[in-house]
Amino acid sequence: MNTSIAEELATLDLGDARINRRTRHVLGRLLESPSVSPTASMHGWAEMMGVYRLAAHPDFTDQAIFQAHRQAVLGRVSEHQRVLLIQDTTELDYSTKKKQLGRGPLSTSERQGYFMHTQWAITEQRLPLGAWHCQIQARAPEIGTAPERKKKPIEQKESFRWLQGYREACELARQAPGVQVISCSDREGDVYEVFAEWQQRVQDGLPAADWLIRCNQNRALLPPGDDACTRAALGQADTLVEEVRQTPAVGCISFKIDTKEQIKRVQGNKHLAVRQGRTVHQEIRVSRVRLRPPHRSGQKLPSVSLWVVMATEVNPPPGQDPINWVLLTSLPVEDIDQAVTILRLYLARWEIEVFHRVLKSGCQVENLQFKQDTRIKPLVALYLIVAWRILYLTKLGRECPELPCDVVFSEEEWKSIAVIRHGPEAVHKKPSLQEMILMIAHFGGYSGRPSDAPPGPEVMWRGLQSLRCFALAWQSFGLNTS
Question: pTM of this prediction?
Answer without folding.
Answer: 0.88
